[in-house]
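Exam revision sheet. Question 4 asks you to relate a sequence to its structure. Input first:
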Amino acid sequence: MKILEVLLPALIAAIISYLASLQALRSQREQQRQELNAQRERLERELQSQKEHLERELQRKFTEKLYDLRLDMYPQAFEITDQLRGEYIFKGNLNQETLKEVRTKIQDWNKTKAGFLLSQNSLKAFYELRKSLGAHPEDNGKYSDRQRKQIWQCKNRFRGALKADVNLLYAEEEEPDQKY
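Answer key, structure tokens:
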């Protein structure tokens, strides 16, 4: 029994020491896990931030390239549609041959890389212009006032849409707090 009396406190002390060590180890691992999670979350935020920065940079480069291409190609459409000035449409001798020529030129322009640069709005305006230019004269071989007005409006919508495409590129460069 004397051995039991001596060993029992030592055994209890050893078990308590062992349990305390386990608890300390468990606490240390939990702290390491929390630190690793915090580090992982910080790295994920940094990666997300870098990803967003790279995406913005890529979008900016794409926008610059699109802008340059539009500035190169859109003036040609303005030159072609310049034949549809108001004084020619409303006061001049508007004839089917001239409209056919303009229609052919604008279609040929659209068949180039310019056709890939048009926004949805510009493309829609292009189709409307092309349709109005292909209309046959209603009044004994002459274009009616309604047809003349439609051609003029379609030309203006098309040119306005092209201008809006370029202005959108400018608007994209503005900071959000600078927009009106």
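Marking note for examiners. The radius of gyration is 37 Å.
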